[in-house]
Amino acid sequence: MRQLRVEAFPPINFGAVVEHMSKGVFMPVIYRPLFNHLRLVTCRTFETIAANTIPLFGMDESYVREFYGESAAELVMPREKPHEKILDIISRPEHYAGIVAGIRAGLAKKHSYQERIRELIRIVEA
Fold first, then answer.
1. Rounded-to-integer distance, Cα 24 and Cα 27, Å
2. What's the 3-state SS for 20-59?
């Protein structure tokens, strides 16, 4: 890993996660297979998008499309030649940053506090 100039950090406090993620050009997002299968939403689902980095999803493409939107499929790590995707992200970060900006806008609309309150009201009134 050192030859590839990959840095690993010790565990960090919860409040510093987004700040530390922002130090990298890209950040792998890998879920446990059960989480992927059950389509669970965790803190990590939002943290990487909130960070100033480009997520590289190691999750099922259909889950990524469903949760993050169609454009997010371009950020799924392919099973074949994943190194080519990493090299492309590093060589064209502005292209991928545009995709991330679109994902952020979609998440802000779909998963805002206001939307969650509206959903809660619909549940309570039903």
1. 7
2. HHCCCCEEEECCCHHHHHHCCCCHHHHHHHHCCCEEEECC
Q: What are phi and psi of 6, to 5 degrees?
A: -90, 130
Residues pairing with 56 in the sheet: 28
* Three-class SS state of 64: helix
The rounded distance, in Å, linking the Cα atoms of 75 and 79 is: 12
pLDDT tens for residues 65-123? 998 999 999 999 999 999 999 999 999 999 999 999 999 999 988 888 899 899 999 99
Count of beta carbons in the 10 Å neighbourhood of residue 52: 14
In terms of residues, how long is the chain?
Answer: 126
